[in-house]
Fold each of these.
Amino acid sequence: MINDRLRELAAMLSGHVPAPVVEDLLTYIRVDEAEIGLQSLCDVLSDEEESLTSAEIELIHELGEALGLPPDRIEQVDELNIGE
């Protein structure tokens, strides 16, 4: 279930986030390291200041909570919201 939602997030991001970033997330999912994949994704998105929709941010928060990630690792993407 979580991996399916992570793949959904990857599909959402694939239209505007560089392909290597999305591919890294998918690789982490394949090797059963979803937590590391989502944390890494948040770090890269924040570092690169990639714009995100409200729906993408909401899904990132939902997945972070489901995976038990520290809130500060996930909340860093909040500033990237373009409001759609």
Note: The radius of gyration is 11 Å.
Amino acid sequence: MPSRPLIDNLSAETLAATLSWFEQRHEAGLSCWALLDRAFLTEPSWRRLCSNCKLASLYAGRFNNADAIAPRLLAIPADYPAVELRTWLDSWIQFCQGLPMVSYLSASPSLDIQAWLLARAQVQSPEERLMLRLADTRCLPQILTTLDAYQRSALLQEIGDWRYYDRYGQWQSLLPATELTDPRPSDISAFSPLILTDFQKRHLLAQALPDTVFSYLAGKPEIFGLLSGKPSGIYDCIAQALTATEDNGSTSVTHEQLQGVLQALVNQKLQIREARDLQEATA
């Protein structure tokens, strides 16, 4: 569980944009859902957040012993009074502040959203089948930039919209960059699971490195010092430091890279207290 925020806090304008989106989608006759990442809250916190919600597990009945960590789906009723929806969203967002754990989808009421998400979460690489972390909003833009235009269209076919809060606390949509430019058959739903090349798999893993390092450092303040500043600034600093010492697309962090990250954080004053010693901290 994260010991500090991992994305920037949301503004009142972002909440207003979220409410407006729900109103517009419901007026258009579309169904709306919230997709939640289970990994970012302790069990007591999760129970408090969802005490009055009817949630569906994305992996229900599909994978052994995976339900405890499975993403959850929450249907947002179209007849929810506007005032109550605002109150609910306000409390919900405040509870999830700083955590990349909630996104919203809209589609035709006839779409089986649980089956749709599960089919798209499973992808095939040359060596193995993988599960995409579609509920972790940090991963969503990384997934889209890894896929080609045809794969992006296949991933998002049949969905009306998919919105999320990015690491800068901004309200974003996944759909603008998904036009199908490759003239292949229109029945692209038959191509699930998507097939990732080895390069795409490595690219996806490499893109996750800055967040992995961020979570690692934030979870060990007694060794690496306390991180300070906006989460987006810390992430950008870590990503730039890793890029400066990039090891041919490596999917792991070397000792030298970690030292470079810690030095960059010190230089940009993104620590309240420095690591006790850079050499010792990375030994």
Note: Residues 177-189 have pLDDT under 50 and may be disordered.
Amino acid sequence: MEASSKTKCTRNTLHNARLLKDIGLEADGRPMGYSEPDSFKAERRIRHLRRVLSARIPT
């Protein structure tokens, strides 16, 4: 019974991914073919790195 439910879940996931692709979305819901500007990516990466480094506990 477990194997059949796993197969069913996999089919549903693939089916949903195909439907999203049909309407122009990636599997995670973002628009296909859209990429953010490099400056935005760099700012986000710096922001995350600063947060990680400031949260690190000095030992």
Note: The longest helix spans residues 2-22.
